[in-house]
């Protein structure tokens, strides 16, 4: 009645509204999947984008004096110049209330003496060299104040070594080249004088340079085998000095007073070159263990110390072809990352990253080497001075350390003897070289999945075959749900049991585990044979469709015997301790939480998945096929092998695929049952780290938007794609199978 | 023999072996969890071992037997232990408690060293708020400094328990509410300031309110201080296993048990009380002792929220697939999407949830609606709402598949009948199909709940924590705090079993938690399966 009273129109409207809403709901499922896919891609994408360098502003400097050095603050609000007269002038890089871009904002007197040169050191420190060969160390700093209600940047100058002038050379001779490094305890200056001496001057802090600039001075001379020096560099930790001279670089160990010559790098000898090359530029990479050498043929090579049979030696690690024709004029390195910029005489500029061998950017902004080139402290800007024109460039280069090849190929990391696959995402220090190789963790995923499948597939398929084909319907009704209950068990429980209960048991009873492999099948055969020989009367009472139940006690007994015999086996064959036998006699590392434990635990998690689907596939083989085969005289076993399994094989394949998909993505079991060490080793007795466990461990600690964060998303994406392939394949096969059966 | 082999019978038996192994592992697993989990609640016998150790000294060890292992004598040889003429030695792991007296509250003892084993009737186990259990003999009781008889122990303990309850109530509910209101006032002020609407009037009103709150706070705090004095009035002297007498204040005591005096029924009674306490108590000692109430609460709340989201979506999607979608490539694609949603590793959902919901959607919500709390995030951080949404996507295919199966079992004659009588498709769905399919939908929802209750990996990224200071539901407006983090049973197992400093001590608790979780999940699954089976039977009858 109520329906009839309503107008037809409103009913139709409701009907079509419902259709729309339901369609929308249905489509939203697909939308969700696509959204996940696209969102993962969206997060990953920036990692593979190349760098962008673009001009921001450029303005002319109107001062008369020659500018010796420039610099800028962290947020790129102020740039400064230091000129010959010892003045430091600040220019606005961002327009604010009272100044526009390029206008002079501050003007300070650094010192009242004319300057000869300014050398930039690590961090914000600048070394001023006066006309009369004295030096002074300054550090221009910037402070944000909120006094007037708005944010304002106020520059100030600090003097890490005091305001007194320091004579680097005892004899007061003019300095040709100078380099320095300082920490809280000492400051080290290495210089090459006009009269051909290489000197080292040590300033030892009386207390600590971070709050007290008082020091005592110590002069030393370094024996150098050459009259020519082109460039001097000192590592920021003041451990080594690099002296470039024509075609070679001398490396001195500064950590002792002997200033011993540690090595001589001669790139010429490294490879068979036809033309003799000169070294034209040199720079130290952040982290103070690598040196970059630019050569006259336009290549840049990276060198660091590697442990070899003859002790530690400098080796050429990799090289970059920067220019085909021109010599490298300058190399500039970033403070915290392994990026560097190159410049040729014609102003061709390039940006590179060493670890990933990433060719980030090439181009040119000037027609010659700029008078000054500064990388902003956050490495997101460049400040260049060329022909009295000060120009700011923005740099978008957030993920230089990631390239496709660095993720999947061997990379030679600093301090390692050879290229390797390493995953080590974080460390305590700032200038740490992140090692992002997805190979070890992808390998771990495959290893875990493989061992799990080795364990699960035989048991699950055997169980599926028996349940679907031989079991009576009454028993099947009980057995199938019981095994499927296992699928519902939370994996966190399986993982916990694997890690805390199974792992110690496996460790203490290794012989028993090995024996089970033989004992269990053997027991089945013996039981079967004994059953076969039993008198008919007993067999008639208990049908052999009860085989699984008959086997339960015998299998339990066999397992019990194996474990009881285990200590005896251990004493008889392995000298009382299998663990020691494995580590000492076989030389295999043994972890308590190893692939064996994971294989068993994850196998249990996968068995119900495979069992359930394979059982369905076998059970739905049309009955007339088997009846036909049996009627023609085949035994049940022959029928099973030749007819049933053959027909159901696509279904079994899709069951295995689904199981594999589950094993690949499983997180909690591997997280709890392995040591989570990213090693590349198939050993049964070692752990692994999988993609999923890696995400679970590192994701909560990774900084949002960092390369690490994005690479973890990439790991998730790889997992997504893996399982997508397995599942789609399985579903495809199953759909075709269904069509086939329905036609039979 | 050869004939027997040819018949294929051994191979059939071998495949039967697969079934047996699967059954053994399932039942064995359930038995393992159940026995270990339940033994945690059973009051165990307290032993006193009088021993003579290798150096010939007399030692007394008091405690519960935790584990026993047989070790070959050779392995002990390099520990400078010598047991003449024995191949293997039995070792006992004893929980000795008394954490303030000994460095480790567990100790291995060698059975051959034991001279005498007794179970003294007056041996007690004192469960304490901090420092774990204490095993010993009660020497004397002191009421406000004066010695009193042992009979008054229960009375004194009851008094302390009641006071502690009141203090907790005061601290959590009353003082908690004031703190919450003060924080809200601060945010209110900041909000006005951000919008430039902070007039002098408003400022004064806020200051006034703040003042009242602070006065209330002082009153409550004084009350609390007074109660603290009250609660620590009594103490007892207890003699530990090495003869040392330790003073234990009653305020630290939760329970005093004389297990050795218990008969079977008393033990059974204690057993059930312990189970109840485990379920309703808060965890203590970095989750390694006490109950799991916040974890149960968090799990249930999250799962309920998830159900609210996933049910309509899953049912609508299933109806679309079965009733509306045509037989075309798009439908095939949709089915593949459903299968894939079911197959995508759960951790991927966690990553997606963290990136998309927490940082992107949550971050935007914060900027739009909660600018006053920034930079501290409100929704832009993992929380119970994001967990529920993430798990809703994860369990969507479960509901879809189950509902669709139910729809497929409804005879088409019912639809045709309804349509023939003039009902529109929507009316047929709403009045005929859905009511009949409701048990199938129920099954799907139950299975989804079971799946969600056991899932841990994605939750680790989108909102679960080891220790949540506040429940997501409390007496402060707006009562349901969807932005809060929560505790979860599954994560509790992972955290206590693998991250706690004293894994050995925590292990029984982990088993107990695992048992609880398994019971919930197996029960849910069995319910779902039985509903489904009944449904199948019903429609089989309809078809004939």
From TrEMBL, chain B:
Keywords: Cell membrane, Coiled coil, Membrane, Transmembrane, Transmembrane helix, Transport. The chain crosses the membrane at residues 12-34, 262-280, 292-321, 333-361, 384-407, 428-450, 509-531. Residues 296-528 form the ABC transmembrane type-1 domain. It is found in: Cell inner membrane; Cell membrane. One of its GO terms (cellular component) is plasma membrane. It is a multi-pass membrane protein. PROSITE patterns: ABC_TM1. Residues 153-230 form a coiled coil. It holds the Pfam family BPD_transp_1. Its main location: membrane. One of its GO terms (biological process) is phosphate ion transmembrane transport. GO terms for molecular function: phosphate transmembrane transporter activity. PANTHER family: PHOSPHATE TRANSPORT SYSTEM PERMEASE PROTEIN PSTA (PTHR43470:SF6), PHOSPHATE TRANSPORT SYSTEM PERMEASE PROTEIN PSTA-RELATED (PTHR43470). Belongs to the binding-protein-dependent transport system permease family. CysTW subfamily. This is Phosphate transport system permease protein PstA. It comes from Thalassotalea marina.
